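S1.2 Input.
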Amino acid sequence: MSLPDIPGYRIDTLIGKGACGTVYTARHDSGSLVAVKILDPNSINPELLVNRVNRLYRASPPKTTVPLIAHSLEKEPYLLIGGLMADRVIQGSGERFVPRTLQLRLGDYLGKRGSWMLIRRLAQVLAEFHRRRVAHGNLKPGNIFLDSDNEILLSDYAQGLMPGLEELSYTDALLYSPPEQLMNPDGYLEGAGYGWDVYAFGTLAFRLLNGVFPRCHETFEKVSPAMGEQRRRGVEADCERIAIKLEKTQLAEWKGVAPTREEEEGRLIIERCLQLDAWKRYGDMR
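S1.3 Output.
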């Protein structure tokens, strides 16, 4: 793939590739480093994405997202330019950039009670998205960034399994999606995305605290990115099969008795988030 010319920027180093595009570092004429995501036109809905960007930034810049510096979503090549949330690592005579994502730090949180603080902050961040009338719709550890103060910043909203796509390769965000999103992504346009975020939050919270996916763990563990890896390659996306499997599987049990009343109440909230019936979940994260 030939790289586009972006006035004022020089594209440098590949950071990573996902289902919707490829991310590079780029250097501005001023010398500052940024991240550039070149989007796959077959795997995004540019009209929907620009609408959600405008909603997020309409009143004031949100403090809950990776900072967006500029975008080009009106014509190809579609791209996003944002803050560089990655650490520079020297390798011999070269260098690479390691994203500061929860996915690459799962070992610090998975199966640990200390994850409660992160979970509460994630709930607050999603609530801010929903207050601005934006459903993320693509929640997974790789789209959750941790800054130098361990504050959460989300990326890649209104991407992934969205309405109007020509194709979408496998993404582990599917493992956090409720059955109704897997079967009918067009529901996002009718406001269903808020409930999808509730379910995805519940799935991630349960996994962080319990060390396993709340449903279908043995299957999902085989196709989720390994600890310390950004993505899992060679997996086919079969949304209908995942949805059917979810609907036939009981919720896993918690490991041990909750040590405090507060934690017991937190578990009950997470269980409600994980209801397969969207009407039995919370309507949104506010």
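S1.4 Remarks. The longest strand covers residues 9-17.
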